Amino acid sequence: MATKITMPQMGFDMTEGKVARWLKKVGDLVKQGEAIVEIETDKVNIESEAFGDGVLREILVGDGATVPVGAMIGIIGTPDEDLTAIKAEAGLTAAAVAAPAVKAEAAVSATAATPAQVSGDGRIKASPLAKRIAQEKGVSLAQLNGTGPGGRIVKRDVDVALTAMPVVAAPVIVPIVTAPSPILAPSVLKAEEVTPTKLRQTIAKRMTASKQTVPHFYVTSEIDMAEAMALRAKLNALVDDAGKISVNDMVVKAAALALVKFPSINASYGNNVIVRHGAVNMGIAVAMEQGLITVVVNDADRKPLPQIAREARDIATRTKNGKARPEELQGSTFTVSNLGMFGEIDSFVAIINPPEAAILAVGTTRDVPVVRNGQVVPGKTMKVTISADHRVTDGAEAAKFLQEVKKNLEEPLRLLV
User: Fold this and answer.
1) Which of 199, 215, 239, 321 is in the most buried spot, having the most CB atoms within 10 Å?
2) H or E element: which one contains 210?
């Protein structure tokens, strides 16, 4: 039976998406779960998977076209299957297709008419990483041959070009002794206007809406991290690099366990009702070149700490490489935003990520003097601040939630049971 390929929804506020490129051509065999098309959204490029086995019979929306969420963009079926019914079911008409359909008999000629490394609109096909490195190193993409899928230029192609570039010897500079310079003039910055990326535009729209429509309030707590850091060191000594546990992983687990006891914070507000979610799906803010994006570890309260660490690292890495799945970037019920890795970030407040009711901002774990048993001794502390929706919860409940997070981190064996 034929299977539709539709524009997936990769976020509650996503209404349309762009076909960045097809990873299969008409006539190729396709297996369920196999990446078949790369979709570009306002946030990130994601490879969308096939929902059935068969042959890619038709591509209905070509590279570069933008269509609404749910629109049919391709069809998978058996080689001789009649596709009339599935097209009629979808209400497919010539006007509904944003770009010409690619039929099996036309696929070969279309491919031959365009250089492999150039897209339909004349732009050079290159991965975001390859573009960035080429720009930084002064390499012209037009001079490169792409070895990626469909002739796409990837990082290794830029690396090869850099290796082949001639090495220019640095000029010998003879110092000239002059009189001491008077007061230096201030450095001159370049005045310019920069067009924000699509992700930055989306962040601007969503964060503005959040601050304008959600009544935020903030509660901060300081946590003694000495025991947590000691446990982390012991655990990391037992695993390889791929299994290393970060401070953020411990915070995610501590917050997930606390949310089970405070379902009003693991919630959303909408249409005069408070929706308490039946799962604890932890969003983790990940910094990308274009801006912040949230990746999701589902059921974090029920997963062991090492599994959370591996999943979070894997999803974040694949997101930066455009390999994340749609479900890994949506559906979070609570978010952790951590700036502690940048050092000396004592504390900060974060804007709630709609439609969630709260977000936890995490600062740096710092070496500070603390008082234990009446004595001042070396210690490690970390400040966390919850931003919460006052329509859903209040200060007293938020404070109790932070007390539970604090207890989980100050008695870190709780994270392992």
Assistant:
1) 199
2) helix 198-213
Separation of first and last alpha carbons in the chain: 47
Cβ-based burial of 363 (10 A; exposed 0-12, middle 13-18, buried ≥19): buried
DSSP-derived pairing of the beta strands 334-338 and 267-270: unpaired
Give 248-263 pLDDT, tens digit per residue.
Answer: 999 999 999 999 999 9
Global pTM value = 0.65
- pLDDT for position 100: 43
What contacts 24+ positions apart, CB below 8 Å, involve 400-406?
Answer: 400/262, 401/258, 401/259, 401/261, 401/262, 401/265, 402/219, 402/221, 403/221, 404/257, 404/258, 404/261, 404/262, 405/221, 405/223, 405/251, 405/254, 405/255, 405/258, 405/360, 406/221, 406/223
Catalytic annotation present for 277: no
Cα distance between residue 20 and residue 23, in whole Å: 10
At 342, the amino acid letter reads F
Structure tokens at 247: 């401070």
Q: In 3D, which of 36, 67, 51, 46 has the Cα closest to residue 329?
A: 46
Q: Which of 390, 400, 407, 414 is catalytic?
A: 390
Nearest Cα neighbor of 122 from 142, 107, 104, 106 is 142
* Tokens read off for 345: 């970030």
The per-residue pLDDT for range 97-126, each reduced to its tens digit, is: 444 444 443 333 333 333 445 555 557 778
Residues in the chain: 417
| For residue 414, pLDDT beyond 50 | yes
Cβ atoms 51, 62 nearer than 8 A: no
Domains in the chain, please, with CATH?
Answer: 3-113 (2.40.50.100), 128-163 (4.10.320.10), 198-416 (3.30.559.10)
Work out the mean pLDDT of the chain and round it to a whole number: 84
Do the Cβ atoms of 346 and 363 come closer than 8 Å?
Answer: yes
